[in-house]
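User: Predict the structure for this protein chain, please.
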Amino acid sequence: MEKMLRIGLCQMNSTVGDMTGNGERVVEWVEKAKAEEVDILALPELVITGYPPEDLLLKKGFVDANIRVITEIASRIDSPATIVGFVDRSRSGIHNAAAVIYKGKIRGVFRKELLPNYGVFDEKRYFLPGSRPRVFRYGKVLFGVVICEDMWFREGPIHVMAQAGAGLIFNINASPYHAGKIYVREDVVRSRTREDRVWVAYGNLVGGQDELVFDGQSFVMDRSGTVVAAAGAFREDLLVVDIPEKELLRKARPVSAAGQVTTVAARPGGLRPSVKKPLTPRPVTRLDVVEEVYEALKLGLADYVRKNGFRGTVIGLSGGIDSALVAALAADALGSDNIVCVFMPSRFTSRESSEDAFDLAKRLGVRIIEVPIDPVFSAYKASLATLFHGLGEDVTEENLQARIRGNILMALSNKFGWLVLTTGNKSEMSVGYATLYGDMAGGFAVIKDVPKTLVYKLCTWRNGLGAVIPERIISKEPTAELKADQKDRDSLPPYDHLDQVLKSYVEEDTEPSAADFPNLPAEEIARVLRMVDLSEYKRRQSPPGIKITPKAFGKDRRMPITNKYKGSQ
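Assistant: Here is the predicted structure, written as structure tokens:
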């Protein structure tokens, strides 16, 4: 019977700043891996501090605490050999690092060499790059350890490690999610496996952290670029895989940059044949893209509420599709008992909206309360009558209604400790079709990065699991109901056209023209782009929301508010 190396990838949900708690959970996962007779276990990037720690890294006490925790848990880890992400310190500064622990000692440390500084990443602000690839020995097997970005470029340290004899590379990650990201990762890793003829164990963080969601989906890829096993998506998991020892053995070439090989275990018992119970096969499955986004939104919302200690949530339910999706997500993520919906009708609210809002709440099993806003609206108008004398009603009165609703929700939040979940989508946020201090008021913007067309797909997909969203909410024409006979199309192009233009301009940084979108006149495209630019000041004041596209507003896209550049058009 051939000898096998049994490896484990733990995708753990850590909490930024909870070093003690994260360390204890690392030890718990090590014990689970030990029970599975794992030889080498890898946990995610910066799992001790949580990711991203951002400016906490500028606090000496924070870094000191993380070093104390990694030192303390190392003394408690006997086996398996365990790779743990943490912040290391040198004379020159701090490093994004991975410790290799075995038999109560840190046997070696690898420091991340390639530091990303684009999109949501800002690692050059904090970390110094490592300068020496490390190769470790476990019995006859040589393996390397790299961190996230080190895998993404051919000039990274993997080639040096392979040349030094490493047949297996552990790549520990805190790779944020966007729709379809798993296939991008697989393509990158496939390039490395085929170039250097190595196996790669790709381990990823899972969980929500402010705007970011980490999806897990760890996997093991063989030298041919085939994914042989994969962990679950959007949940903690321990992926255990047996790799034939002969697959990992290779001749080393003298490569000074790799430095001296560090022996972790000279004669590990784990490579004896026929001593371990067989593993249950883990089929490689991937989620449909709409299901994937729904699960990402659920996890991001659940962790934001849980990790920040909120007692419940409150949602302004209008009878429209956006608030319906947010309510369904909240019920699925948090449980119906943790949600209160508030229906706030005005003189412009239709009977259908009222029926649909209460029908939705009943189907979801959530509490709904009704607070009419007409008395408050009338009082506002009376107070402003002298100032507004002789002026016709316009967007001012529309925004007053939205702000009254925002005030009511925030009052409930203050009184009962509920987190207000806003309901604006990415299409609205892009063009400013949302009221500052009104429907934008709240603590967390669940679908802030979800285009309107995707909102419909998500609702339809969720109803496939059980019809919780009334069909009329999905089929009726969208309207803000802030004036008589109002429809979104009065102010905006059709959403299927609008979202294409926004994807081009916001996510792809192009300047679309009528040639790109023949269904829209050139002046309409120019108007949309102008609306996007003029709404930057609004977006700066919006609550955080979950990133699910390649480029979300906020850290991904940092445009100046004061800006005279109008592009080449």
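Residues 395-416 form the longest helix (22 residues).
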